[in-house]
Amino acid sequence: MGFKRYFLTAFVILSLSNIAAARSLPEFTELIEDASPAVVKINTVEHAKRNSARQNYPQDVPDIFRHLFEPRAQQEQRSMGSGFVVSSDGYILTNNHVVESADEISVRLSDHREYSAEIVGTDPRSDLALLKVEAKGLPMLEFADSEKLKVGEWVLAIGSPFGLDFTASAGIVSAIGRSIPTERNENYVPFIQTDVAINPGNSGGPLFNMDGKVVGINSQIYTRSGGSIGLSFAIPSNVAVDVIEQLKDKGRVDRGWLGVAIQEVDRDLAKSFGLSKPTGALIQQIEPGSPADKSGLLVGDVILSFGGKTIAKSGDLPHVVGSIAPGKTVAVELMRSGKKLKTSVEVGQLNPGPEAELAGDKGVKGDRLGLLVEELDVRQKQAWRLAGGVVVTQVVPDSPAAKAGIRAGDVIAQLGFDVVTDLATYQALQSKLPANTLLPIRFFREGRPAYRSFTIVE
């Protein structure tokens, strides 16, 4: 009898423990039901491309063999990703890398409605793109303040991994403020790290908090297998909100620029600079004429706060500076020669990067090549070791330049057979280019030179 009573008591205690444990785990069903209608699957098509320029065949080649000298067309490429509706009148957010090479974009909702989408604008630096479909009354998602996110919080992702539509996966926030430099060594996104199962096809999909609001946009994974190993990274919602507003307003994203090279402060450096602990961003170099130079910052200064935001590590500084509107004056706290100082800096504008064509902007005319260009600044000349040139800020779709493969962010160094030294030279040269003639153009992309050919049809 005593054994039975003990067994029954143990069973009751164990059952109550299991119930308590179950109650402490999050319940996602209602969140998924409410949020899924605003999540979309994105399908893209990149058409096969063939060089349509006139071919220069070797002499005395019979017509029957000329096809051997023609370039082969690329195969049509299809890919997919995820996204979500950010306003009921048809604006959809996704990753730039999901749509950057697409000639056709379609989005499909969970209720099987499907729409063709156009690109409003893209921001490769944050890997975000804003799309638009012709629809009204669409279900939409709300953003949360990503700065309130804490390590250990439960989060949930919805997307189409490996094409499996509207799949949900959950986990916790593993870290915040992760610095992951791009191939161009740019670092403007303080990524959210999670252990949520994210796989190819999830890109561009939403990351939710337990209130059903978007705290991030799933963008990258670290993997050795091609699939999830519990290291995924999302773009914070606060970054996305700013990007959406700027892309809607002007089709591009303007970022702040300081003009310094920085490094981490280790324990020994902190001690030598009079800091109680390793913190801040140590200025290694200042570009002449930059906002940092004009404001009186010095090599050897350790920036401790910028615009009211604490700079705990060097990677925090690009995140903070990039988020500030160009032309704004902000307070800076720094350590110089063992003493804390306060000063101010007027933030400059970061040079336009590899922005995509503004396919949705029908009012842009451009020049005879279909380009909008700007003077090349000293910083980029030095970085790419260029004597001169002009930087492309926008490419008109279907223009001679677009057909030649020129992109925003490219630096044009030669038109025809003439060198482009500055904006005035470029304007003079492009106005005199002969029409209906195949001409070479030399440009630099990410510091690497390349030649293409173009024809101005008039």
Walk me through what this model shows:
The structure is a single chain. With 458 residues, the protein is α+β, with helices and mostly antiparallel strands. The protein has ten helices and 26 strands. It has helices spanning 2-24, 29-35, 96-99, 237-250, 267-272, 291-295, 316-322, 378-384, 400-403, 423-432; strands at 39-46, 77-87, 91-94, 104-109, 114-123, 128-133, 154-159, 167-179, 190-194, 206-208, 214-221, 232-236, 256-257, 260-264, 281-286, 302-306, 309-310, 329-336, 339-346, 348-349, 371-375, 390-395, 411-415, 418-419, 439-445, 448-454. The strands form five sheets. The chain has a six-stranded antiparallel barrel. Strands 7-8-9-12-11-10 form a six-stranded antiparallel beta barrel. Strands 14, 15, 16, 17, 18 and 19 form a six-stranded antiparallel sheet that branches. Mean pLDDT is 86; it is low at 354-363.
